């Protein structure tokens, strides 16, 4: 099969008719043990990642300063890249906790998730609740929580940024600043008609029952910021940036790339309220295969479809669960193994804005 045929298959649009199966049918195809979340296995993953992170930190802080200065210009960037990968790997475990996919006990999930996300400067409960909205309304034009597509009426995107330099600018801003912009200003998120962010307990993102936990998330972030301030005052600002700040920036960039590529694809539809339903919304996601990077992401990139169908599946069973449901999903399952950077450029260039399907009202596709 030639390259052009492979690319055509990858870009083939998913069906938008209601599937002939339901979520119950899909669940029956998955071995029951896949839904088990044994503590020893989950904590094994957590401690494994923490040991790797601490080992990198220990080596960097104790041995890189002893190298000849010329070698530090290579050693520090290698550390930044490696630690950025490890932090996003850890972050994925915190995300699993928010879905009750870490253990059989909600309180353990929340304690672990609060620790993991807080040390990676993500407000755990705030993100948990907004992310739940995303899972509840995936690919809904009106109610999707994040990576909300632009309409053709947004002339900034359709006329001024719909070109090569515009694509570069959009990608640069999204990848480098996407996570903090989303957390602080809800950029790339749902339009609530007012200012909202993940740190204000009164934000429209949250209901009254959730606001106290938003405050707790804020307190956790403040505590980490104080610890970083103390480290900067005792060890130096440069040391704090080198061992934590720059790797955290790398984690933020990788997080945005991961989530963007799992929810943005020329072949995926979006729906308005006349057509949207939860199952078709969940199926408007794509699994990506990034080769060696799959390990970095705990396979989250290549099991995202089954994750949207069954969010409480632990990551170590997700590949088996995905393979079990694929035969029933058939053409409703979207998979793309385009290399990461090529996929990022292609989809940023092709997925500029959505327009309604000419033949099916309520269904929207990306156009460039």
Automatic annotation (TrEMBL):
InterPro entries reported in the protein's UniProt record: FA_desaturase_dom, Fatty_acid_desaturase
Keywords attached to this entry: Membrane, Oxidoreductase, Transmembrane, Transmembrane helix
Domain of life (superkingdom): Eukaryota
Transmembrane segments: 46-67, 73-92, 167-185, 212-229, 241-261
Pfam families: FA_desaturase (PF00487)
GO function terms (MF aspect): oxidoreductase activity
Keyword DNA damage carried by entry: no
Family named by the database record: Belongs to the fatty acid desaturase type 1 family.
Listed name of the protein: Fatty acid desaturase, type 1
Organism: Artemisia annua
């Amino acid at each position: 099969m030639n390259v052009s045929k492979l690319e055509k298959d990858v870009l083939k649009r998913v069906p938008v008719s209601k599937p002939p199966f339901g979520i119950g049918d899909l669940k029956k195809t998955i071995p029951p043990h896949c839904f088990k979340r044994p503590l020893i296995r989950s904590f094994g993953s957590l401690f494994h990642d923490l040991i790797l992170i601490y080992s990198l930190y220990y080596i960097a802080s104790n041995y890189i300063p002893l190298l000849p200065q010329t070698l530090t210009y290579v050693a520090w960037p290698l550390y930044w890249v490696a630690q950025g990968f490890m932090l996003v790997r850890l972050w994925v475990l915190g995300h699993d906790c928010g879905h009750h996919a870490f253990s059989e006990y909600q309180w353990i999930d929340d304690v672990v998730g609060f620790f993991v996300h807080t040390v990676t400067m993500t407000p755990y409960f705030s993100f948990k609740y907004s992310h739940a909205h995303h899972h509840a309304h995936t690919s809904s034009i009106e109610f999707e929580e994040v990576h909300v597509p632009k309409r053709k009426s947004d002339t900034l995107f359709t006329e001024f940024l719909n070109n090569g330099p515009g694509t570069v600018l959009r990608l640069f801003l999204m990848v480098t600043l996407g996570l903090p912009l989303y957390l602080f200003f809800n950029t790339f998120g749902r339009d609530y008609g007012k200012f909202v962010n993940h740190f204000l307990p009164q934000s429209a993102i949250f209901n009254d029952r959730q606001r106290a936990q938003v405050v707790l998330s804020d307190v956790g972030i403040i505590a980490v910021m104080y610890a970083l301030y103390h480290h900067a005052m005792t060890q130096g600002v440069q040391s704090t940036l080198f061992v934590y700040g720059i790797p955290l920036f790398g984690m933020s960039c990788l997080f945005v790339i991961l989530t963007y590529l799992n929810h943005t694809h020329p072949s995926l539809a979006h729906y308005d309220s006349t057509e949207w339903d939860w199952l078709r919304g969940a199926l408007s996601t794509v699994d990506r295969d990034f080769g060696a990077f799959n390990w970095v992401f705990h396979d989250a990139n290549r099991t995202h479809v089954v994750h949207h169908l069954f969010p409480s599946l632990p990551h170590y069973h997700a590949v088996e669960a995905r393979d079990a449901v694929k035969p029933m999903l058939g053409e409703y399952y979207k998979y793309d193994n385009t290399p990461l950077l090529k996929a990022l450029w292609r989809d940023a260039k092709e997925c500029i804005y959505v327009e309604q399907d000419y033949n099916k009202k309520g269904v929207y596709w990306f156009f460039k």
